[in-house]
Write a sequence for this structure.
C-alpha cells in the first residue's frame, strides 16, 4: 500500500500546535493541520508490511492501509467511504483517540510510525468540507422501535446503525445536550462541539429521535421503556467516579474532576451555570490527582482559568522514556507521554499518594499531605507499593481535583429498576460473541460501551455501539446485514 519505497524516502510529519501563549487564552481547537500535499506524502509512507498490525491495533478495525493508499493516489472521495465502512465518527477519533494503531504500525519499530491519526482526521475534514457526507436514509422501515439510553459515542454509533437498518430509534440523554462525555467531559479545545451537532443533523435526517433532559430511571421508568419499545440498549457509560476517602475529603474545594470539567464546558458552550455550581481555578494553586487523560483535561482547563500553579500527582511510578520494542510491539506500550495540556504548564510527580487534605479554620482546602511510594515485585511477580518512611511532605493547594478514573456505571435508578446482572467489577454483564452477544440478563435489553466494558476509549465505545446494533438488529429480525 502507498508507495513501496515511501517509508524510506519520506520522513514522518505530523500536525503541530499553536504556540502555548496563543492557545491558553481561548477554548478553540489549536491544531495546525498539514497541507493536502503533505498528507498525501504521509500516506505514501504506509509500507506493504504483509501483516497490517494497525488493523488489530485499532479497536474498530479501520482498514488503514487502504485509505492511506487512496490518499496517496489522490482519491479522497473513495478514502472517506473506506474510512466510514468501519468508523461512524472519524472526526472524533481523529482528534481524541490515543492512536493504538500507530503503536502497532510496523514502522513504529523504528519510532517512525505512519501518521495514521492525522491522515484519518484530514480525510473526514475534507469530506465534510466537500459536502460528500450525506444522510444514509433507509428506504425500508422495519416497524421495530428501539430505545437507546445514553448519547455518548457508543449510544450515537448504535443509534445511527440501527436507524440505517430501518428501525425507529429514540435516543435518551439525561443532560440538556447530546454527546455524553464528548459534549461535557472532553474540553472544547480538544473537540469542537459543532462536530457533534453536525453529526446530529445527519442522524436526525436518518430517523434518530433525540430526547434530552430525560433521565431514565428517574424521569421515565425502565418498565415504560420495556413496554413502549421492542428493544432497549443501555449505553450510559461508566459514571461512578473513584473517590479518595482520606481525612479532609469533605473540605471545600475538593471536587471530582468531572464536576469541574462539566461546569466549565457548559459555560464555554453558552449554557447558564450558576456561580455556586461553577468551579474556578483562577488564582488558585491547583492539584490534580490522577495522571490520565481526565487529569490532563483538568490541567488545560485550569491553565485557561488562570491558575497560579498546577501540580499533577500520580500514584504509579514514572514510566520509561522509551519502551522495549521487543517486549511491547505491536501492543500499546507503557512509556512516558506528555499531553498538549501538560506542555502548557504543570509540575508532574510520580509515586506519590495523598494521605490527607488539610484545611483552614473556615473549612477551605489549603494543602495536601502526601507521601512518596516505592514499587517492588513480590514473590509472585506482582507489583506492590509501600510508603517510604520519613518521606511525608505537603503540597500547597487551594483546589484539588480527583481525576482517578471511574469504577463502574451508576447502579442506582435505571440498573436497579431493570435488575440486570452485573459482572464482578460492577459493570453490566453481557457477552460480545455468540447468539446472545451484547444481551443482558433481561430479555430484550442490551448493553454497550463503558457501561458494559468499564472505563475505556472513545474508539472502543464506537466499536461496541456498532456491534451492539448488529446484535439488536439480528435479535429483532432474525438476521442482519449490518457490519460487525
Amino acid at each position: 500500500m502507498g508507495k513501496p519505497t515511501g517509508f524510506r524516502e519520506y520522513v514522518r510529519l505530523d500536525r503541530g500546535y499553536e504556540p502555548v501563549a496563543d492557545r491558553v487564552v481561548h477554548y478553540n481547537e489549536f491544531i495546525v493541520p498539514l497541507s493536502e500535499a503533505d498528507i498525501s506524502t504521509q500516506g505514501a509512507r504506509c509500507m506493504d508490511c504483509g501483516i497490517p498490525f494497525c488493523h488489530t491495533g485499532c479497536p474498530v478495525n479501520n482498514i488503514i492501509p487502504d485509505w492511506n493508499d487512496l490518499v496517496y493516489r489522490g482519491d479522497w472521495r473513495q478514502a472517506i467511504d473506506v474510512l466510514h465502512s468501519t468508523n461512524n465518527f472519524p472526526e472524533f477519533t481523529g482528534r481524541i483517540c490515543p492512536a493504538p494503531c500507530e503503536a502497532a504500525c510496523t514502522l513504529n519499530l523504528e519510532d517512525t510510525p505512519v501518521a495514521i491519526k492525522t491522515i484519518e482526521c484530514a480525510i473526514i475534514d475534507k469530506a465534510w468540507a466537500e459536502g460528500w457526507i450525506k444522510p444514509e436514509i433507509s428506504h425500508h422501515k422495519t416497524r421495530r422501535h428501539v430505545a437507546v439510553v445514553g448519547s455518548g459515542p457508543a449510544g450515537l454509533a448504535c443509534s445511527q446503525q440501527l436507524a440505517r437498518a430501518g428501525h425507529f430509534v429514540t435516543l435518551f440523554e439525561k443532560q440538556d445536550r447530546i454527546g455524553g462525555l464528548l459534549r461535557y467531559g472532553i474540553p472544547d479545545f480538544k473537540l469542537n462541539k459543532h462536530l457533534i451537532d453536525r453529526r446530529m443533523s445527519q442522524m436526525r435526517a436518518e430517523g434518530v429521535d433525540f430526547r434530552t433532559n430525560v433521565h431514565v430511571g428517574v424521569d421515565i421508568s425502565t418498565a415504560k421503556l420495556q413496554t413502549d419499545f421492542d428493544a432497549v440498549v443501555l449505553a450510559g457509560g461508566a459514571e461512578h467516579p473513584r473517590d479518595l476517602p482520606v481525612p479532609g475529603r469533605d473540605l471545600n474545594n475538593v471536587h471530582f474532576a468531572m464536576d469541574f470539567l462539566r461546569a466549565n464546558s457548559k459555560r464555554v458552550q453558552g449554557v447558564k451555570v450558576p456561580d455556586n455550581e461553577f468551579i474556578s481555578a483562577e488564582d488558585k494553586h491547583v492539584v490534580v490527582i490522577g495522571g490520565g487523560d481526565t487529569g490532563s483535561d483538568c490541567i488545560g482547563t485550569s491553565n485557561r482559568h488562570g491558575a497560579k500553579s498546577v501540580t499533577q500527582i500520580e500514584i504509579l511510578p514514572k514510566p520509561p522514556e522509551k519502551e522495549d520494542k521487543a517486549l511491547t510491539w505491536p501492543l500499546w506500550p507503557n512509556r512516558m507521554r506528555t499531553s498538549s495540556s501538560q506542555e502548557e504548564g504543570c509540575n508532574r510527580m510520580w509515586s506519590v499518594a495523598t494521605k490527607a487534605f488539610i484545611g483552614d479554620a473556615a473549612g477551605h482546602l489549603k494543602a495536601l499531605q502526601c507521601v512518596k511510594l516505592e514499587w517492588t515485585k513480590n514473590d509472585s511477580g506482582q507489583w506492590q507499593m509501600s510508603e517510604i518512611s520519613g518521606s511525608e511532605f505537603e503540597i500547597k493547594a487551594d483546589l484539588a481535583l480527583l481525576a482517578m478514573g471511574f469504577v463502574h456505571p451508576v447502579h442506582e435508578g435505571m440498573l436497579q429498576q431493570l435488575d440486570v446482572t452485573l459482572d464482578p467489577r460492577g459493570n453490566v454483564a453481557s457477552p460480545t460473541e455468540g447468539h446472545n452477544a451484547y444481551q443482558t440478563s433481561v430479555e430484550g435489553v442490551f448493553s454497550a460501551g463503558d457501561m458494559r466494558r468499564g472505563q475505556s476509549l472513545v474508539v472502543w465505545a464506537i466499536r461496541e455501539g456498532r456491534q451492539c446494533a448488529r446484535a439488536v438488529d439480528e435479535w429483532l429480525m432474525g438476521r442482519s446485514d449490518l457490519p460487525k
